[in-house]
Amino acid sequence: MKISTKGRYGVRLMLELALHYGKGPVFLKCIAEKQGISEKYLWQLLAPLKAAGLVNSLRGAHGGYILAKPPAQITLKEIVVTLEGSLLAVECVDVPESCSRIQSCVTRDVWKEVSEKVSHTLEAITLQHLVGRQHQKETRSQSYDI
Fold it and tell me: Where are the alpha helices (DSSP H) in 28-90?
């Protein structure tokens, strides 16, 4: 299983919105510059995130994008599943009828366990956790400057 650019950049987009949560909307151009991601690509990520109820847009001179709910209520799993689809390692975990060996296949059990652990891990990490980690990294990097 591999998280594509879509999922990775989507998490970075959402982290930027979480870092500005409660401070007003953020322009897409600012996120693109800060994260080094093209504005056009970020635009494509916003549609599914808005449809999933994770992001809101505000129009006008003071418009931009904001999180639709607090960072502590948005998990990485929500973001990744919205942008990537299923987190399952193999199809037979979700669709047992796709494999005739389902009753005797030991490896399916392993793939199911892997999929569950990935799902639980991403479910346990919220945008608020990432905000805290970001602040820690910034503090550490500033304390080493001479």
Answer: 28-35, 39-51, 76-84
Residue-wise pLDDT for 61-100, tens only, equals 778 999 999 999 999 999 999 999 988 877 777 776 777 7
Residue 7 backbone phi and psi in degrees, to 5: -70, -45
What's the start-to-end Cα distance of the chain, in Å? 42
Sign of the Cα pseudo-torsion (121, 69, 6, 20, in order) = negative
Structure-token pair, residue 119: 């799902």
Rounded CA-CA distance 31/51 in Å is: 20
Report the DSSP beta bridge partners of residue 56.
Answer: 66
Spatial separation of the C-alpha atoms in residues 110 and 67, rounded to whole Å = 36
Q: Is 120 exposed, middle or buried, given 0-12, 13-18 or 19+ CB atoms closer than 10 A?
A: exposed
| Alpha-carbon gap, residue 2 to 15, rounded angstroms | 20
Tokens 């949560």 sit at which residue? 21
What is the pTM (predicted TM-score) of this model? 0.87
